[in-house]
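Example with several molecule types.
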Amino acid sequence: MPDRDSAGLMAQLVGDSREYAPAPGFVDELFADTGVPRKHAANLVTTLDGMGRVVLTELGHRRDEIFRQQGITFAISDPSGAPHERPFPLDLVPRIIPADEWELIERGLAQRLAALNAFLDDVYHGREIVREGIVPWELVLGSPEFRRAVHGVRPPGGIYFHVAGCDLVRDADGGWRVLEDNLRTPSGISYVLENRLAMTRLCPELFTGYRVRPVDHYPQLLLGALRDIAPAPGREPTVVVWTPGPANSAYFEHSFLARQMGVELVEASDLVVRDDICYMRTTEGLSRVDAIYRRLDDDFIDPLEFRPDSLLGVPGLIRAYRAGTVALANAVGTGVADDKAVYRYVPEMISYYLGEKPLLENVQTYLLREPEQLDAVLDRLDGVVVKPTDQSGGKGVFIGPRASDAELARQRELVLRDPSLWIAQELVCLSTTPTVTESGALVPRHVDLRPFAVCGAEFRIIPGGLTRVALREGSMIVNSSRGGGSKDTWVLDAAGPHVAEVEDVAARELPDMPTLEQATWTGQEQQQQQQQQHGSGRAGGDG
Amino acid sequence: MLARIAHELYWIGRYVARADDTARMLDGLFRASLQAPGGPGTARLPWETVMTALGARPDPDEAPVSASEAVRSLTLDADSPASVTACVARARDGAKRVRDVVSREMWQTLNTLYLELDTSDLGSALRTGPYSVYAFVRERCALWWGLADETMLRDQAYAFLAAGRHAEGASMMLRMLRVSIVPSLALVDESGSSAEGPAPALLQAIGGLEAFRRSVPGPADAYPVAKFLLFEPTYPHSVAAALELVHGRLRDADPSYRTAAPLLRLARLRAELEFHRGGPPQDGGEGLASLLEHVQRELSEADAEIERRYFSGAAAQPHVVTA
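Resulting structure tokens for the full complex:
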């Protein structure tokens, strides 16, 4: 039997891909079977094999160093509870989505977002969908995210959310399902851009043989959408990004977006509302603000309308918003549509508002506020996932099949205390994808996908999105706050090589690059001329 | 000061700036070449064009040049005045001859850069990741300029070093504008936007995208980008700002600057650019093309005049007996 070292050596010689075995019962993104890469992954797997464990481990160290240097970190708590910063965990094996599959996702998301936007417009106006009895009124009017203050306010262009992110997963049958919609302040786009940048710098050879669609136009799309909603006729609109402050866990992203868009990053103390007009305090006095990309929840933005104890808010902002002098992105009150219970009704919204069949399916969801569904779920609590409707970031999620008897009993009690706070879902068998371990080996780990959309005149989905990966074996919790990592997500370009290349006319007319030798030469020539002149003038001078 | 020393400093300035600019361009363009063009502003420059613009002369029979070949030649080719290592070697040769004029720290910075490039296996470093090579070059160049600012007297030596740096910057910017922006103006549609142009890619490659975003509110289309890179007085790498800096440094160095031919020419050129500041003529690129050509011609005239006025004594090699 070989000892440890030689086993390691063997693995390196044999190559990891041949040993890579997808977990049974799950779809693997890159491998069809043990050691057999899918067609779109063949190139990548060959390159990875060529690199081997040693190079991958080495690259991992370099990646951590670069991320730490650039401050791309996030705060987590170690077991003792003390917060510390660690580099954002980017896995070096990219996730690849073929062009045709992406096309479906793109169309499916655009459809879903169009329906959700129509729903929000309905909720804050006629509420036809409630009258028709399709969505229960308690879920709309009774939602803590329903904002009476903006009833009847239609934002510019009728768009309620300008930035959206939907969480997608691939189930055991290979089909895509939507797990969650994020219509308030979805975060993660900065990691999509930084991951791509890091991958092109760290391991450009992985891109060999692929045409990966770029993602770095996102800030421009966002800026365009924000400028479009700014009520600033006849002048250049002023757009700002509003952050709760450096203590916020997504502060990196806020400053990233402000820098990339070239706009100010403001905090509440920078903004002031006078006579229903929003200004920021500058060195030259007050300067009018036309559109605000805000990265904090409705609850906190205006202490006069919402939580009076909010120190992060700007008094009077909602009045200015209602007066139409300033645009907010996302609009106030969008949270009512991304509630986990409302999620259950999105397929109905698609058929009600658009008259279409949903292209992307939901995960089968049970509302525990309905007595029959509650009973059915309680009978098989060990077979479902139970989630609180008012939490995000994976908090409070209960996974039945993984729970002990004591946990089952505790969860049953929690649910029974107030069933309306909970939903239950069928367990989704998240697909896996090869992921590098500390020692450079490839192992299957579960992933989800959060594509990001910028919504204006049309719904534009950035190719790819954030692939989050559960770094622990078997774990399906991918949230970065709970030990998840991320991957660069490649959407392959469908079109052939139609590179829009610029003509090479001007290049031929360029003068040669000047050099020191040439310069000396002109000087010398001139000097010789001088010399000749002098020489002829002073022939037979000094001797 | 000695004409020979001034000449040397001027060219050290040019070569360090050229190494820096080329490293920046290559990093940006190589990164862009890894991804498919798609989305706004991702049209690509052919590598032959890039090579010509950066001063390497690609063999016309070898077209199209691959990314790795272009990167290799623009980084390693010791014979080309365009490659990063050649520029660094020449700057370091120059610095060796003026070690008494530049500070010890500056010399060490350049020498370390040269030795590091000379001794490491750059070929394989370029294959696995050019980024680390270019990042190192850029850091060292930035350190060099930082040390020049911190440790040199503001005397003639500093003036000629800085003048060379900015003359190179202006010339490089004009070359890049001519090969990338001018042809893309032909693609501009009626609405005045050129979503497919390489303008954002150019900005990104020269490291000016963030500055552009903060300065210009609109999208990075060909016209606003051309305007920014040509005229923007607050962006130190714009042609106008660089010319202003060349002019300013030479004025510092020249006691009778009012009658100096190169300064008069530079002042006139600045005034001409100021006159066009409202924006380049929007006529499908022809007006801009001839403006750029004119500015570049004037700049090389000014360069020749600088040589004549300040350095002509330097041309005399030790063995040439002068009258």
